[in-house]
Amino acid sequence: MLDQWSSWLVAAGRALSETRSCDSRMRSVLPMVTVWSLGRARHAGGTVGQSEDSAVVPSVHGVVVTYRRPTDLARMLASLTAQTVRLRSVVVVDNGLEDEARAVVEQASAGLPLDYLPTGANLGPAGGLARGVERVLAEASDDDWILFLDDDNPQEDPQVVEGLLALALDCSTVDARTGAVGLVGSRLDRRRGRLLRPPDAALHGTLSVDYIGGDSFPLYSAGVLRQVGGPRSELFFGFDDLELGLQLGRAGHTLYADGDAWRRLRDRYGRLGKVPRRSPRVTWRDYYSVRNLILILRGMGLRRAAVRVTLRAGLARGLVRAATERGSPGRVLGLHLRACVDGWTGRTGRRVDPDRW
């Protein structure tokens, strides 16, 4: 699985470094996307460099959340050391109970400016990112950028951070309200509560999106996160990236994904014209996905969409999966029903323990 992710991320980094970036020619292609014709000016590597117009290139800070995966964390930190743009700081948030990542951080600190932050509890990705962002914002300037990283997704292409930073700076030049950029994003259908997959024909230029997935190397403006706030920690797991993107949008900020790189990735992995299938296996993740999506939609005032999600993802899908579950169908149905009830009553936090499921 790790090799598959590494291969995908290498391709993503190469595709991003090959693409063009934002200029002032903006045009609407479809109601769900905004596309800019691209024309990136490459920026100098290093923590601080000079662009072609002699402006100082802001710093990039990283936040890595890890939970009981020291080997994966070591690979991630090694991939950051090899980047052509040196990160100004990297906060490693350890959700483990036994400080398992401490030794890894101490060994890697010679090549990276690392800051080890143990939480003493499993706060989930959302809680860990919230803690990490808070730590970064204590030192970062508003012109800096914060890169969210998964501990098990090492980036082997050394230019991916450089490419993302160039994309962020160019988009900010055209659109001063730019809040984040990333490799891949999505739009939200506010009527049905579904995430929209842009058609292949729309994947060119720079696309305006509602959110950037946590595994797609989202790069956020430090100044925007200081104004709007970071991830919502009480969500624990699942759709915290969507919630953050929607909050940025509500505050008037925009998020962008690289359409050309996105299309090349679909082509490379045979996904053009195909919609990814949902895994039939029921896990604790299903609870958080349903609960959090209902919570988020209600919080955005999209009550009808929340009802649709409850009926479709919570009840109908729960019944189907319970009927096909060989082991304990009652447990599966109960998980979905609990997610719906908690979503509507506002019960947040870690309600289903991943280690006990």
Multimerization status? single chain
Helicity level: 40-55%
Largest sheet entry: 10 strands, mixed
Q: Which shape, going by the Cα principal axes?
A: globular
Distance between the termini: 21 Å
What structural class should be given to the helix and strand makeup? alpha/beta
Strand content: 15-25%
Averaged pLDDT: 85
**Radius of gyration, Cα only, in angstroms?**
20 Å
Spatial order of the strands forming the largest sheet: 1-2-10-13-7-12-6-3-4-5
Low-confidence stretches: 1-6, 14-21, 23-54
Order of helices and strands: HEEEHEHEHEHEEEEEEHHEHHHH
Number of helices: 11
- Counting DSSP E segments of at least 2 residues, the number of strands comes to 13
Detailed description of the structure:
Helix 9 packs antiparallel against helix 10. Helix 3 links the parallel strand 4 and strand 5. The protein has 11 helices and 13 strands. It is α/β, with parallel strands linked by helices and about 350 residues long. The longest helix is centred in the C-terminal third of the chain and has 22 residues. The chain has a 10-stranded mixed sheet, with helices on both faces. The protein has a 3-stranded antiparallel sheet with strand order 9-8-11. Helices cover about 40% and strands about 20% of the residues.
